[in-house]
Amino acid sequence: MKKKMSLHEKAEAALKKAVKEVVDKHKKTGRPLAVWENGKTVLISPDRL
To answer: Is the pLDDT of residue 11 over 80?
Structure first.
């Protein structure tokens, strides 16, 4: 029997899925991914994803 997911768990799962899709798309298209790191915007090359 499956455990019923709380709203928080559903939101977290949706966010993780969305992030994975964005990372996969950037890998596939060869575009760098912009992330926030130590108070600055950093571009990560697709080969490092």
So the answer is: yes
**Phi and psi torsions of 45, nearest 5°:** -65, 150
What residues does each domain of the chain span?
7-48
Q: Find the largest Cα–Cα distance for the chain.
A: 45
Q: Is the Cβ–Cβ distance between 38 and 28 less than 8 Å?
A: no
- The pTM of the full predicted model, rounded to 2 decimals, is 0.76
Residue 49's SS3 state is coil
> For residue 16, how many C-alpha atoms fall within 13 Å in the half-sphere facing its CB?
6
CB atoms within 10 A of CB 32: 14
